[in-house]
């Protein structure tokens, strides 16, 4: 576990310090600033208008304060999303820092929503803010959790999808699978955003697997 990850994990134990301790104790800065987004489908608005920026934070303590005060992913209504992205990057394919990239994605049957979804989503967020992907973290733009009728989805969005970045992309996928403690039989796949944008059905070609 990296120094950043240790700070993120240890920060959880001190989310409710005494007033005096809060004044004295310095906060632990993150390597990047992160923005939480919330999407709620409203048929009277376009997709981008349904996407709301909630808050931007840049310390361990502010992350835990946010996490402890928002609805857990498993309790969101069907059709809603949470997105956690580096500050300045929007959770949409069309963003200039996303358009050439892709995403590692895993699917979670709704029968396991209340046993696995929140645990997986928290671990993914910890990977992001704790810089778990080491030097490959520069490719990581953010992550999304989608609440859907039959299958929920969690994905990590990368800025690159090209073959010359395959080693880094695969390394991120292996790290993610390891952190989520998935078995060899539980496969996650990498999709290119441009393929998702031009798809003509629910099926999208998977470029890589781990």
Can you give a write-up of this model?
By secondary structure, the chain is an alpha+beta fold. The model has no long low-confidence stretch (mean pLDDT 89). It is built from seven helices and eight strands. It has an eight-stranded antiparallel sheet with strand order 2-1-3-5-6-4-7-8. It has one domain: RNA Cap, Translation Initiation Factor Eif4e (2-Layer Sandwich), CATH 3.30.760. It is globular.
User: Which structural class should the secondary elements be placed in?
Assistant: alpha+beta
Main sheet? 8 strands, antiparallel
Query: Residue share in helices?
Result: 25-40%
Could you tell me the CATH topology label: RNA Cap, Translation Initiation Factor Eif4e
Number of strands: 8
Low-pLDDT runs of 5+ residues are: none
Quick one: CATH class?
A: Alpha Beta
State Rg. Answer: 17 Å
The end-to-end distance, rounded to whole angstroms, is 21 Å
Overall mean confidence score, pLDDT: 89
Name the CATH superfamily classification: RNA Cap, Translation Initiation Factor Eif4e
What is the total number of structural domains? 1
CATH architecture classification? 2-Layer Sandwich
Strand order of the largest sheet: 2-1-3-5-6-4-7-8
Q: What's the order of the H and E elements?
A: HHEHEHEEHEEHEHE
Give the helix tally: 7
> What is the global morphology?
globular
Strand proportion, as a percent range, falls in: 25-35%
